[in-house]
Design a protein that fits this description.
Elements (H helix, E strand, L loop, with lengths): L5 H24 L2 E8 L8 E5 L6 E2 L18 E7 L5 E6 L7 E6 L9 E3 L12 E8 L4 E8 L19 E7 L9 E4 L5 E9 L2 E8 L8 E7 L20 E7 L4 E7 L4 E7 L6 E2 L11 E9 H10 L4
Antiparallel strand pairs: 1-2, 1-19, 2-3, 4-5, 5-6, 6-7, 8-9, 9-10, 10-11, 12-13, 13-14, 15-16, 16-17, 17-18
Length: 322
């Protein structure tokens, strides 16, 4: 029987350790860059992007010029742009195309510069009296390898006008469709109805549950605040909402940045013409950190998402930015 070559085995083991260490070091060295998709004014010029490396200070890219001009719908707007990186490695975006149409916009990209042909998704066309389809968002369910697109719509006389001024025609609820490929979609279904007008939902996975941040849009009396609901499944059913988390501010358009130890919610303090932020480690106790953040002037409702340092460098190269 041949004796084992302990010296050779030791060299192989050492090489494996070095390779693993190098891979780990490279992974650690790969910084995470945060991007903020948003719109300016009424959304007529399209998609804007800002970036941050510390989660608090945000700088506009491309001299705050549009990355993509809206081409679809009668109004040709691109409000409330929501971008996520999907399970296929592509960036998928949905947006509000109009104040009063029954569909939303969709496009995809591999680099955030070159985008696919814009599509109009007729998500509420089956309800002829629908007034709107506002602030769509996408959340990816990795377990099901499925995307959920969700938005706020008003169907007149569908729900009691509880907490809503009778003179106000809007009484929103959240609706959704699911898709695996952005080519075929499920039938539209009701996502959230807790007997109040609700808009601007955004959903993140947290362990075994999904967390929905939403705006209570009631105006009689005025609420106009952000709250949270929970569910074991992405498509629901979601819980009753928590108490308001945004204090005295009239707030809308929440977008959430999640790290290992904290949650940061950015939101539009639209009555003050400013952006605000709150921070929590447990989703229960919230601290106002509005004075710590800096965002581009005129930034309106968008979403925060992350890219790798390599993806960010490619993006900057393509727009000629150092």
């Amino acid at each position: 029987m041949n004796k084992p070559n302990f010296k050779a085995l030791a060299l192989v083991a050492f090489a494996v350790i070095l390779t693993a260490s190098a891979a780990l070091a490279q992974k650690k060295a790969e910084k995470q860059i945060w991007l903020f998709s948003y719109f300016n004014d009424n959304g007529q010029d399209g998609l804007h992007l800002a970036y941050s490396t510390d989660m608090y200070t945000w700088k506009a890219l491309n001299n705050d010029k549009s990355f993509l001009a809206p081409q679809i719908s009668n109004d040709k707007l691109m409000r409330d742009p929501c971008i996520i990186k999907g399970g296929d490695g592509k960036f998928h975006m949905v947006w509000t195309v109009s104040w009063n149409e029954k569909g939303i916009g969709y496009a995809s990209s591999t680099d955030l510069v070159n985008w696919s042909e814009q599509q109009y998704l007729p998500v509420m066309e089956h309800e002829s009296t629908t007034l709107n389809a506002w602030a769509p968002e996408i959340t990816y369910d990795a377990k099901k390898k499925e995307y959920m697109i969700y938005w706020a719509s008003t169907i007149p006389d569908r729900f009691p006008m509880l907490g809503v001024n009778p003179k106000d025609k809007y009484n929103h609820r959240m609706y959704y469709v699911t898709t695996k490929d952005f080519k075929t979609f499920s039938k539209t279904k009701l996502l959230y109805d807790k007997k109040f007008s609700v808009i601007d939902a955004t959903i993140l996975k947290d362990g075994k549950q999904f967390v929905m941040f939403l705006k209570n849009e009631n105006d009689a009396p005025a609420e106009k605040n952000l709250r949270i609901a929970f569910s074991k499944n992405l498509t629901g059913e979601y819980s009753e909402p928590t108490a308001p988390i945004t204090g005295k501010y009239w707030a809308e358009g929440p977008t959430v940045l999640r790290t290992k130890d904290r949650w940061i919610v950015f939101f539009d303090k639209y009555m003050d013409g400013k952006y605000g932020a709150i921070e929590s480690t447990d989703l229960k106790n919230w601290k106002d950190i509005s004075d710590k953040i800096s965002v581009p002037k005129g930034i309106r409702h968008g979403t925060v998402f992350s890219v790798t340092e390599k993806e960010f460098e490619i993006l900057k190269q393509k727009i000629g930015e150092k």
